[in-house]
Design a protein that fits this description.
Blueprint (H helix, E strand, L loop, with lengths): L37 H21 L1 E5 L2 E5 L1 H4 L7 H4 L2 H18 L4 H32 L4 H10 L6 H21 L5 H14 L11 H17 L7 H19 L22 H25 L4 H4 L2 H7 L2 H10 L13 H31 L8 E2 L3 H22 L9 H14 L2 E2 L18 H4 L3 E3 L2 E3 L24 H4 L14 E6 L2 E7 L9 E6 L2 E8 L14 E8 L10 E5 L2 E7 L17
Parallel strand pairs: 3-4
Antiparallel strand pairs: 1-2, 5-6, 7-8, 8-13, 9-10, 10-11, 12-13
Helix pairs in contact: 1-4, 1-11, 1-13, 4-7, 4-9, 5-7, 5-13, 5-17, 7-9, 7-16, 8-9, 9-11, 10-11, 14-15, 16-17
Length: 617
């Protein structure tokens, strides 16, 4: 039916939006194409493949004395930091997410709340399946007697990459407002970019260090806004190449002058990390990628047409599950001694990368096949609560709760301190339930006017659309849908609210060890603060490839009750050794909670400085 009739393409009556709602797309569409380009799907597929390969290549697992650990390749091999300019493709995800969000919003026939719920449930389905599976697996391993510290380490390894999702959820929530801003001002991406620079100036100089957290939203939000600008047709002609060239020049200056490092992935021991939080250097790097990809998009679209659509359907599933094969293969291969353990960067280590990648690919393929089978079995109705008022605000609260729970999973893992994270799990389920709450139509409407997402067309409601492991469940049953709830009604004692905000700095070293460093008289000394540890059992020191690693482990007792601010689990810190360090003569002592490591090194003669004359040819 026509828009003026107040009905959508399904024939359902349209409800008036509340005054505080985002502007509807019908009141001012973005200029530019109405459908996304196939290049967008291809870029997303290629990006997830690069992420998976990068994580698998860098997964240097070790197993000594019944303990799993890992070597940081970027810390052990400084030259590999330049490779991050190839493997850092997270900006591509946010770029295409901005484009896809803008394309979806401008084509949506209904209001913002139904659109937002539609976009979020496309993510909530596969993410919920993954979260539940990992929580169950961690609990099974705990009941089977797995070490608390080792369980916490493994459960954290399969949760860290979820950091992407809280930021993405917030940006999806802001898409209607960002699209409206882009429609009014073509240079909208400049606003968050300038904000990133200002935050860097205040946080990196030490004036307001905590302000750096804002760049998680501002930095990735700037890239997301670039995607919206791309969809709006801002990048026409040679503008993308001008953007890429200018950003490359800025990036070169920032890296050369500092304090920004070369690596576009965080390296243990570096004072500044370009990704945690995102800073001006990473934003310039993202602008280079955006300019090149947007410039190539027309040619890519002309060549691939729709060939990437099928592969794109499994992108989210691959991203979510790609670290599980690492844990599975490591558990099978390392404890029995089936795999070699060459030092990171050695010829043997590089040679083992080939069978290592092949094994992970086989396990991943088997996992995707199981997911596909489970998808067909579970393709049933997902019940949602219906309310007459305040569905919009409830949806916003649900997004916030869901994002916060995913943030906690990414920081602490699925088994913090080897225990089940009951509070975080309940928060996540509550957030998913709130996201599913929809508005009921006005009184007097017929049953046919009461679909759970009223602005989806009738024909689309009859289909089961699968995307990355999620089944978008809809119904056109001729009777009124029963009201059900996803929120558990059991009385569960939640932990103290104040405990929920006791967070470590995310995405860096987990529980970093605080240290002091001195170098004098041919002796390099590191003093590490490790109170309450058993130096003979829980503290380990290793050196090699120009770096020194201090690791410690403290297990929580299962009988412990009440509240504790102590840190449990695995701790580590890696520092660079001076040139000429004699690793064979390293000595370590522990007293009064302080570990002191001394490393003799040969001081090199610098010689007397002389002035070099310059001649003009």
């Amino acid at each position: 039916m026509a828009e003026s009739s107040g009905s959508n393409d399904a024939g359902f009556r349209r409800r008036p939006e509340p005054r505080w709602a985002f502007p509807r797309p019908g009141r001012g569409r973005l200029p530019g194409p109405s459908a996304r380009e196939p290049a967008v799907d291809l870029y997303r597929v290629v990006a997830v493949v690069v992420v998976v390969l990068g994580h698998w290549l860098a997964a240097s697992v070790t197993y000594t004395g019944g303990r799993f650990a890992d070597e940081n390749v970027l810390a052990a091999l400084p030259w590999t930091r330049w490779l991050t300019w190839v493997f850092q493709v997270i900006p591509v995800f946010f770029l295409v997410a901005g484009y896809g969000g803008a394309a979806s919003w401008t084509r949506w026939p209904g209001g913002w709340a139904d659109w937002l719920r539609h976009r979020l449930t496309g993510v909530a389905g596969p993410v919920t399946a993954y979260v539940v599976a990992m929580l169950v697996a961690a609990e099974i391993l705990r009941w089977c007697g797995a070490s608390g510290a080792q369980l916490a380490y493994g459960a954290w390894a399969v949760a860290l990459h979820l950091w992407f999702l809280p930021v993405y959820l917030v940006l999806v929530l802001l898409t209607p407002a960002a699209a409206a801003l882009q429609r009014r001002w073509a240079a909208a991406p400049v606003l968050p970019a300038v904000a990133v620079v200002l935050v860097d100036a205040l946080s990196l100089t030490g004036l307001v260090p905590v302000l750096g957290w804002a760049n998680y939203l501002l930095g990735w939000g700037a890239v997301f806004q670039l995607g919206i600008a791309w969809h709006a047709g801002v990048f026409s002609g040679r503008r993308p190449l001008v953007l890429a060239g200018g950003a490359l020049g800025v990036l070169a200056v920032l890296v050369w002058l500092g304090p920004y490092p070369v690596s576009m992935v965080g390296v243990p021991g570096e004072a500044v990390r370009n990704t945690s939080p995102p800073n001006a250097a990473l934003l310039a790097f993202a602008a280079v990628q955006a300019g090149l990809l947007v410039s190539a998009a027309p040619a890519v679209t002309a060549r691939i047409r729709r060939r990437s659509a099928r592969a794109n359907a499994s992108v989210l599933a691959v991203y979510l599950w790609h670290m599980v094969p690492v844990v599975v293969v490591a558990l099978v291969g390392y404890p029995p001694g089936l795999f070699p353990q060459p030092h990171a960067g050695s010829p043997g280590w590089w040679a083992f990368r080939v069978p290592w990648l092949l094994l992970l690919a086989v396990v991943m393929a088997a996992g995707l096949a199981l997911l596909a089978a489970a998808r067909r079995v579970t393709a049933r109705w997902w019940p949602v609560v219906g309310v007459r008022r305040w569905a919009g605000p409830v949806l916003l609260v649900g997004v916030g709760v869901m994002a916060f729970a995913l943030f906690r999973f990414a920081v602490h893992g699925f088994a913090p301190d080897g225990r089940f994270p009951a509070g975080t799990a309940l928060l996540y389920l509550a957030g998913v339930g709130l996201v599913g709450i929809g508005s009921l139509p006005a009184r007097g409407g017929t049953a046919a006017e009461r679909p759970l997402v009223t602005s989806i067309g009738a024909e689309r409601l009859r289909r089961l659309r699968t995307s990355g492991g999620f089944v978008e469940r809809s119904s056109d049953r001729g009777k009124e849908n029963e009201v059900a709830s996803l929120i558990p009604r059991t009385k569960v004692k939640l932990p103290a609210v104040s405990d929920w905000f006791d967070l470590a700095w995310p995405f860096g070293e987990r529980y970093p060890v605080r240290i002091e460093e001195t170098a004098a008289d041919g002796k390099y000394t590191v003093r590490a603060e490790l109170p309450g540890f058993d130096p003979e059992k829980g503290v380990h020191v290793s050196a090699g490839a120009g770096s020194l690693t201090i690791s410690a482990e403290r297990e929580a007792t299962s009988e412990r009750k009440g509240r504790s601010e102590f840190r449990y689990g695995s701790f580590s810190r890696t520092v660079s050794l001076p040139e000429g360090a004699e690793t064979a003569k390293i000595a370590a002592t522990y007293a009064n909670g302080i570990l002191e490591v001394t490393v003799p090194y040969e001081e090199r003669e610098t010689g007397e400085q002389v002035e070099v004359p310059i001649t003009k040819n």
